[in-house]
Amino acid sequence: MTSHPPVLEEDFLAQLLVDAPPAIAVLLIPSFFAYLSIYALVRRWVWTGRLLVVPTLVLFWASKVVAPVRCRALEAEFNFGAAIAIMKLLELHVLEFTNAFPSYTGGKQPRPSLLALILFTELRYESFTPNPIRPWQLPKYPFSSSPEKRRFFYSEPIQWVIHVSIFILLQCLPQHILPVKALGIIFAIWNIWTALELVLRYRNSPPLFGPIYLADSLATFWTETWHNALAGPCLSLAYMPTTFILSRLRLPRSLVRSCAIVASFALMGVFHMYAMAPILSDEGMRRIVIFFVANGVCTVIEVAFWGKKRHWVRAVIAWTIELSLASWTVAKCQVADGVLSADWRGLCRAKVP
Q1: Could you say which of 116, 131, 146 is where a domain stops?
Q2: What pathway is this protein a component of (predicted)?
């Protein structure tokens, strides 16, 4: 007699209660091994830490076999978590190998066990130096004569209210228009991440995002506007290795830097493709990668042409490119036409092939 897998629940929360507990329990095992590897680096047991990397990676892979998640939305969330943990682990080993291991500057040095936990969970290295964060510069407007009012206006809570308002306005527009839909997704991501940041941030945490409406070029969008939570892995796992390899080939410095930037975008493309694989079709995953790589290439070309000069023509071209790429990507992604039209109860159903 042939056995059939259990039928998926129609309700997202019901399936969540079935899939989540065993999956979380199994994922804790490779997460603990990753922590032990980082703890070994903190204690300067370098080779012990390196040896622990392999079983950690194997256990992350095996976790999906031991405790399979049938709910596609939940599987995507777990993929995001596992991918971030793996990048964090590899990043710290690269930093140790290049003698750039972060030094704690957040006050009194904590004990090694706590320091390893902070390193593992602190994505932006707020408590360490050096860190890869590049905070966006506060504009001189509005309230040019009052820095206090300007700082209040650009504070994360006020900007979150502004961006939520813009998002609601976008949801009132026809969602079958792809640029409107794509821009709505951009604002939705901004609002969700910022809401989490407002709850989890440290007192000394810089803003996670800059205001979207201030982005006036592709370069400023990706360096000053969009979130910097994954700037560390981009630098350590893509930009630096690409720079090192191509510099050894004695290629021109400008070409090396351009390739390193594109490599960083490619890493983010692969990361998002892996994380979102459960909820995207094959074509959707392909377009996600192309979206990031194309953004990298266009950013390089833009900087080569404009340099650091700001101009309204540059802003118009940048937003035309960004919304065109985002619209092209969204066209093949299984995204509802508006938040109110989303099937929130059926997020566990199988993805469209």
Answers
A1: 131
A2: Secondary metabolite biosynthesis
